[in-house]
Amino acid sequence: MGLCDAPEIREAYEDVRNDDTQTNWMLLEFDENKNNVLKVGNKGSDGLDELKKHLKDNSAAFGYIRVPMSNDELSLRIKFVFLVWCGTNAGIMRRAKLSVQKAEVTNVISNSSIEIAASEQDDLDENEIMLMLKKAGGANYDRQASDY
To answer: Which CATH topology does 7-134 take?
Structure first.
């Protein structure tokens, strides 16, 4: 069985992407019984703060988050964040394999505006992520002349 072969992974990914559901994040975790197989560890509807509660400092995981953005009520758009988590106490072999495994995960999680690599909770500041999304999104109409 491959790293991302479980059908529930694709289903969770599509659930996060679907505007008609409340689900706005998912977390793929390594199966404890099969070291090189991912499973849907958690998913939810309360965004980044809820996802962060499931990140462990002794593990690695992949997250996917739907983020609504707008400059005003008429310009709502949805952006997606791909998260590569490797906690500070994750094992050396897990760390070594993570970049290769990330490539396989991105075959399933193929649409994102930005990618974030994080190893500590502080790496996932919502304001910083929003700024990164704005920069990745092109035109930013809420910037002031003093921001240039």
So the answer is: Severin (3.40.20)
